[in-house]
Amino acid sequence: MKTLFENVFIPDFDKDVFFKSNVLINNGVVAEITDSKPYADEYYNGDNLYITPGFIDCHVHIESSHLTPSAFGNVVSKQGTLHVVTDNHEIANVGGMGAVEYFMNEAKHSLCNIKFAVPSCVPATPFATSGAELGIDKISSLLKREEAVSLGEMMNNPGVIQGEEKFTVPIAKAKVLGKVINGHAPGLSGDDLLKYVAAGVMDDHESESYHDIKTKLEAGLKIFLREGSAEHTDNEAYELIKEYPDDIMFCTDDKSLNHIMRNGHIIYNVNKALRLGIPPVNVLKAAGRNGLKYYGLTSYAEIRPGMNASFIIADISNNAFKIKDIYVSGKNISHYSPENRNTPVPEKLQNSMNIATQSEIPQMKNEQACIRIKDGSLITEHLVDSSKTYDLKNDILKLCVFERYGHGNRATCKITGFNLKKGAFASSIAHDCHNIIAVGTSDESILKVVNSVIDNGGGLAVFDDKNLFILPLEIGGLVTSKAPHTIMEKLKHINELITKMGCYLTDPLGTLSFMALEVIPHLKLTDKGLFDVDNFRYL
């Protein structure tokens, strides 16, 4: 089957310009770029349209969408994201190697070209309890799989910098296999940053400001500009695309299905960059070519003879990218919906709640320390607060974590920034160990949502002091096999309830899910207690 795309603008990423020509594809491959009009079975009028390689999400945790890999890929591919590199340390922390292999097998049924970053830190640190561990042997085995293109983000920065064997050995094995080594370097600078890079780490996605990102670029790291649900990159940082046109890529990291459908996946990064005045050819390089080459997916990285015909046809005008059609290996997928296929779910993911019904909230060990959150950022502040445990007038609430893998650990602290006036909400998504986390205005309401999560085998629960509502997440307490539109409806209802309860955060559930992540500054709560990230110790 031959198709000729006539009079399209084609990016020349080496010269950073567009040129106009005809593109002939044959049997899923770009056959010719020509000013003539060769025979074709089908002709596509591309006047004033652009043809560009499909977008790539260079770092994503698919679990944050609550979708299985194939369902996630089918959703984002319709928005032009034809490739993703997913680090599934979320599901790995719950179900171990079997969970990662389940994701790898399930992903094969997707329209999207899903590649994998092998989880490197499961668990991230010894300061939280996970349901599984991935040691050196398991990491090495997974790195050898064809789907694996990188060693996942190295989150235990002190361990990497100090040269601990459980980090240096996987890095060395990844180097031998020619895999990328992903980083995670919030707040790193100076000698520590240089040591982190010298250890072999190649990229970072955790910086938000122009200054921090430029510092890391100058240290030799590639950068993924992140636009997730609860985290965003500062506008001025996008100027670095012009300064470092070959070293910057895009990612979402953690983005809910609601935000993907409402705001867009990688196309959101693209349109943000265009609105900020970044030249379109540089934007498309960051959205596609750079990441595809970086991960060795070179046959998709350009529009030229011999390349795979997976690309986007779009209108680029008025600082906006508007998709007209999307092709995967020469086939138009714009109106194509693949059949759902069932992949057997491991037993450990079907029964991941090893915790009894809770009857009381754990006692608070440090009544002076309070976590303060900031909308749109994962970085929290350590606030000293002497007010009473619940002070709704001053937005002082309780944050609780309940370990769900059978050890019985529980912890509580004060938190401000959610602004709830009644009720509580809870989640079995609590990065990265995914214990049960809840925030609320009373012990009774917190217990209500926590026990709902337990009873449903995982999920997202909200209680407004009258009504209880939950979205069950039956696969590892992280994802569900339900259809995307069903999940969308339930998520919308949950978020509306939380807003009516007084919380106006951009992504309240996403923000809550990161309050237990002990590798992002400054103060977090794990199942073992309140944790000072800067000094890597409990308070």
Automatic annotation (TrEMBL):
It comes from the Bacteria. Its EC number is 3.5.4.2. One of its GO terms (molecular function) is adenine deaminase activity. Keywords: Hydrolase, Manganese. InterPro entries: Adenine_deam, Adenine_deam_C, Amidohydro-rel, Metal-dep_hydrolase_composite, Metal_Hydrolase. It catalyses: adenine + H2O + H(+) = hypoxanthine + NH4(+). Residues 387-536 form the Adenine deaminase C-terminal domain. Residues 50-332 form the Amidohydrolase-related domain. Its cofactor is Mn(2+). GO terms for biological process: adenine catabolic process. Belongs to the metallo-dependent hydrolases superfamily. Adenine deaminase family. NCBIfam families: ade. This is Adenine deaminase. It comes from Flexistipes sinusarabici.
